[in-house]
Amino acid sequence: MKVVEYFASLQGEGITIGLQTYFVRTAGCNLHCSWCDTKYAQRPEDGREMSVDQVMDIIGDAHSVCVTGGEPLEQPDTPELLRRLVAAGKTVVLETNGSKDLSAVPDSNRIVISMDIKCPSSGMQDRMYLPNLEVLTRKDQLKFIIADHIDLNYAERFLREHPVHTNVIFSPVGGVDLKMLAEEVVSRRLDVRVLPQLHKIIWGEKKGC
Ligand code: SF4
Which domains are seen in the chain, by residue range? Predict the structure, then answer.
């Protein structure tokens, strides 16, 4: 599999926010979000070829692992890596961009699927693979990255048209301007969780955090 970086840090997003986590970031993404903050992970040729055994070795005894990208499901070896991580007793977050069929992801309570729904500001909102909504359960999460009121209205309408049985996270683009989002969610009485991108509050835009 193509890997662009790996590092220990804190989980910056979603329901496991703040948890010490080992990150494996694959190289190559099938989308091109306008505000992508990991452009260095978009091209497969920028990654280093590693076997699943090598990836398991660098993860070592880390308990919590996040497999992210790029888009991890672009890698044929990702389902095998997930199986190996679960067999090794680890808890895993798989971050996926919402455009790839989730049926290859092993069925395990140890795997949290963190799936995006791209809003209009990304330019990728028509690329979502909506049958995935049936796969997500209460252990998983659906993530909306919100840039403005157009995105917020889109996310609200999406959730009305597609009722889901999973955690729903709203986070602001850029990670720190939470006030508008928090006030809108409260006034609209939306049943979602507003979260920052913790790593950006702590480390800014630094790569590998
Ligand atoms: S899906 Fe993620 S990695 Fe791919 S372009 Fe969008 S933000 Fe960047």
Answer: 2-203 (3.20.20.70)
